[in-house]
Amino acid sequence: MTEASGPAAAPNTPPPGCPAHTAHPDAVPLSGLEYQQTPFDLYRSLRSKHGSVAPVLLDGGVPAWLVLGYSEVSYVTAHDELFARDSRRWNQWDNIPADWPLMPFVGYQPSVLFTEGAEHRRRAGVITEALESVDQFELGRECAYIADQLIASFAGRGSAELMSVYTHPLAMRAAVHMVGMPPGAADTEALVEDLRMSLDAAEGDDPVAAYIRVGERVHHLVKERRQNPAADVTSRMLEHPAGLSDEEIVQDLISVIAAAQQPTANWICNALRLLLTDERFALNVSGGRLSVSQALNEVLWLDTPTQNFIGRWAVRDTQLGGRRIRAGDCLVLGLAAANADPQIWPGAQVGSENSAHLSFSNGEHRCPYPAPLLADVIARTAVETLLERLPDLVLAVDPAELTWRPSIWMRGLTALPVQFTPVAQ
């Protein structure tokens, strides 16, 4: 590395040509330990300084807009003609390296996530009808069976770390059950690990390579189900009269599996954390004033597992929240910030029976209608079964010792250690 001629660059100044040179001068990096552990402090700070739409920097100093306001997120997601999903519109592609950590989120794929208009309705319709065919009672029974098996594996020890032995395995097994992947198989376990890596890469992970491996494994599943159909989501998508190609189904199944596994596991975890650390919340549930479904709904307001979603891309120059948004600008949907918007909760007290949160997004690109219902079946069964089998469950550490995963996208604990009276099996 050689020294540049001419005046020395100021410390921490991006090099010429870096996308940070085109960013708003007050843009705030969406990174750092403080943000990862207490994101709502940052949301309040950004809202106080910038209003409902704040300039931010993604990995590598890439500029974007974080949409914080409930009304603004609702507006963006309801107006595809202004804020579209096809990421090829992005005005920053010349500055994005091929191994950019967020490439799995923004790199264009022939997936339902990036389609628009009639094509999106066609693709989303196939997913919706395939998910509608899932028997919720059968799924509930399967989840209860999975939960019983998992609990039996640690109930006799009197202690457990629930993230690794319960919430993530349960959501994973439920997801692969729905799409027809064999539970417990090495390929299935590797798929889940690669999904985690592509959605929420840790230090040393290669999310791009992980995403490629996910595609290869799902492609194998589609090929198998093409030859040997069964009563699962994959087979129903293959048999749908819309006639999706194998590649289209592979891409859309990846979206279905990812949405069913990681967010649902963290939803379960976040609900259990509140039950174990918030006396009001726990008493309302144990006293019957709050059903488990209502408690889970309250968690979506307070600690939604999908914190931020990237994103939308401006179709043309426009205005949003008093900001001038240029054609091709990237907008990050601040779902957690919008759910906590003081404009909709002036008393800072959410309503457990109000389901108008944005945790499943909004508009044509929201989660297909059956998906939230199926996720609720999985999460509710997981929480109810655990509380029934281990009624004296308590946190094994001080609540202040719990730490959140280092992610701006997903909200979930790194670990949830608990203690309970050992149960003989």
SSE diagram, text form:
Elements: E1 28-29, H1 33-37, H2 39-50, E2 53-58, E3 62-67, H3 70-78, E4 83-84, H4 103-106, H5 117-132, H6 136-154, E5 159-161, H7 162-179, H8 186-199, H9 207-227, H10 233-239, H11 246-277, H12 279-286, H13 292-302, E6 309-314, E7 318-320, E8 323-325, E9 330-333, H14 335-339, H15 370-389, E10 394-395, E11 417-419
Parallel strand pairs: 1-2, 3-9
Antiparallel strand pairs: 2-3, 4-6, 5-11, 6-9, 7-8, 10-11
Helix pairs in contact: 5-10, 6-7, 6-15, 7-11, 8-9, 9-11, 11-12, 11-13, 11-15
Short note summarizing the structure:
The protein is of the alpha+beta class and 425 residues long.
Account of the protein in words:
The chain has about 425 residues and is of the alpha+beta class. The protein has one domain: Orthogonal Bundle (Cytochrome p450). The protein is about 45% helix and about 10% strand. It is built from 15 helices and 11 strands. The protein has a 6-stranded mixed beta sheet. A 3-stranded antiparallel beta sheet has the order 5-11-10. A two-stranded antiparallel ribbon has the order 7-8. A hairpin with a 3-residue loop joins strand 2 and strand 3. Helix 8 crosses helix 9, helix 9 packs across helix 11 and helix 11 packs across helix 12. The protein starts with about 25 loop residues before the first strand and ends in a 6-residue tail after the last strand. The N terminus is likely disordered. This is Cytochrome P450. GO terms for molecular function: heme binding; iron ion binding; monooxygenase activity; oxidoreductase activity, acting on paired donors, with incorporation or reduction of molecular oxygen.
